[in-house]
Design goal:
The chain is an alpha+beta fold. It is 41% helix and 24% strand. The protein contains 17 helices and 20 strands. The strands form five sheets. Strands 3, 5, 6, 16, 17, 18 and 19 form a seven-stranded antiparallel β-sheet that branches. Strands 7, 8, 9, 10, 11 and 12 form a six-stranded mixed β-sheet that branches. A three-stranded antiparallel β-sheet has the order 13-15-14, sandwiched between helices. β7, α9 and β8 form a beta-alpha-beta unit. The chain binds adenosine-5'-diphosphate and magnesium ion (2 copies). One magnesium ion (MG) binds next to β6.
């Protein structure tokens, strides 16, 4: 890999000296401080702020109290070179996927029908579908719809195609962290311009925070109630605390919008629905509910949390996402959309349909016995996915074979809980990866996500576009991805 040659040629010795790593950590903190001072102004709620900071749970109160138990997020030492053609392609796809999500979300029968078999065997999907079905019965319309999406891709080494890994419609995270690492890389390259011989301007700037804030503020404005707040739904122990704070800061500093942070349990305890549909939490009317939790069964440890989700859904607050938008992001719907003639049901323009279809990898339901047999024979060519989010849930290799064999033996309906996906093998290269202050060199592959924002009020599309990106790099030997899940390293793009 070119980075490795540059580093060696310019006298960097690996592993890096602890002092060099300390220097980098200080530098990351300085970049964060720079943001605070020059970018967005001081933020009172968080005494320690930094885009590249994560909370670490080995300290008591970490993840609960700002400033306690902090650790830099894992990051790549230098940005990843990435061809402009893929970048352009992914940007062009963003508004198409946003529109697709919205259109599919309006087809309640499609969602119910395609998820019906999964519902029977997966209790989490069932609970979500039950809320969705209640809303259908109430004929509940969401006039203002806000989607903050992230479409994730990998380059398939064998075909050179940019293939979609998945489309996230709920709690699309790392918008703050991604902006931070991009600034870090620009500054590192600027600082070492002579040794590296790289142009810092080739590191693609990241607008995820400002644009997501713009979309949330836009939705807040559509709700049109000055005293209303944006409610950020968070987990009890929140490792994305700092990632989320940047949105909060931007909303207040740039748009004068107040946010409150609540867990689902707190929303249930403090929330009420007024007769006109207004959601009021702790006395404050809520204009927008921004879910940064609620995507995993772990977020619903009891009936309390489900009551909170239903309360939110019944209200007139703008949900990001609505239950329908959430369901469109399930792996099962991704697989259904990849079937022949299904995109045509939702998109009109032939060339748009072609562009979307071109990035679909092979996706199959498990009622396709030929594919199931093929996956049992060659499990290394597939990924088995349940209807889960947040990383660490997919099944690979021998475990995949074992799972399929068992499910088939039982003749069980459980097969409907999963989908099969073609395994993508991105080209690998050597990278310098820093975790917990230690730098390692590893053969690595990358996954590239484009954030999207979609805001509409009835027939008027107010925002539909791409808004920043997330580059994640992980050891090529690993199956899973995900930064906070503990597999991947934050990265940025060096456009070539
Ligand atoms: P989640 O919603 O949990 O993030 P993903 O579908 O994104 O689920 O899968 C998690 C991780 O697994 C991805 O970040 C990626 O590293 C890996 N992965 C998923 N699908 C594939 C695939 N088809 N080929 C190769 N790796 C994959
Ligand atoms: Mg996901
Ligand atoms: Mg993912």
């Amino acid at each position: 890999m070119a980075w490795a040659r540059w580093l060696r040629r310019h006298g960097w010795q690996l592993p890096l000296h602890p002092l060099q790593l300390v220097g980098m950590a200080v530098f990351a903190a300085l970049v964060a401080a720079f943001y605070v001072v020059l970018g967005l102004g001081p933020y009172i709620g968080s005494t320690v702020a930094g885009n590249t900071l994560l909370a670490l749970f080995s300290f008591s109160r970490s993840g609960k109290a700002p400033g306690v138990g902090l650790l830099h997020a894992p990051f790549s030492l230098l940005p990843m070179s990435f061809p402009k053609a893929y970048w352009d392609q992914a940007l062009e796809l963003a508004p198409l996927f946003n529109e697709l999500v919205d259109r599919v979300s309006l087809d309640g029968d499609f969602l119910q029908e395609k998820l019906a078999r999964t519902k029977d065997v997966d209790s989490f999907t069932r609970r979500l579908l039950d809320i969705h079905s209640k809303m259908m019965k109430l004929n509940k319309k969401e006039d203002v719809r806000l989607g903050l999406t992230r479409s994730d891709y990998m380059v398939d080494g064998a075909t050179d195609l940019l293939l979609q890994v998945e489309l996230n419609t709920i709690s699309t995270s790392s918008n703050g962290l991604a902006c931070g690492v991009c600034e870090l890389h620009r500054n590192l390259i600027r600082q070492h311009e002579r040794e590296l011989g790289l142009d810092p301007n080739h590191v693609v700037g990241n607008t995820a925070i400002t644009q997501h804030a713009e979309a949330l503020a836009g939705a807040w404005a559509e709700y049109n109630k000055q005293s209303a707040v944006v409610l950020v739904v968070v987990q009890e122990e929140e490792r994305y605390m700092y990632d989320q704070y940047w949105i909060t800061v931007a909303l207040r500093e740039m748009y004068g919008v107040t946010t409150i942070r609540k867990t689902m349990a707190a929303i249930e305890a403090e929330g009420e629905l007024h007769p006109d549909g207004t959601l009021v939490v702790n006395g404050l009317p809520v204009a927008v509910v921004y879910f940064r939790a609620g995507y995993s069964p772990d977020d619903y440890p009891s009936e309390t949390e489900w009551r909170a989700r239903l309360l939110i859904e019944r209200s007139s607050a703008i949900k990001c996402p609505s239950i329908a938008h959430h369901l469109v992001g399930t792996k099962k719907i991704q697989q259904e959309l990849a079937k022949e003639n299904v995109l045509e049901r939702f998109l009109d323009n032939k060339s748009d349909i072609e562009k979307v279809r071109k990035c679909f990898a092979g996706l199959w339901s498990l009622d396709n016995d030929t594919i199931v047999m093929s996956a049992i024979e060659s499990p290394e060519l597939y990924v088995l996915k349940p209807q889960r989010e947040g990383g660490g849930n997919n099944i690979y290799g021998d475990k995949l074979r074992e799972t399929l064999v068992n499910l088939r033996k039982e003749g069980s309906n459980e097969l409907a809980a999963y989908i099969l996906m073609q395994r993508i093998f991105p080209p690998a290269s050597l990278c310098y990866l820093v975790r917990e202050g230690t730098c390692i060199k590893d053969n690595s592959v990358s996954e590239f996500g484009v954030f999207g924002a979609y805001l509409r009020n009835k027939d008027k599309v107010i925002i539909n576009g791409h808004c920043g990106y997330l580059m994640r790099t992980k050891a090529a030997s690993l199956n899973e991805g995900g930064v906070v899940a503990g597999y991947a390293f934050l990265n940025s793009i060096f456009l070539t």
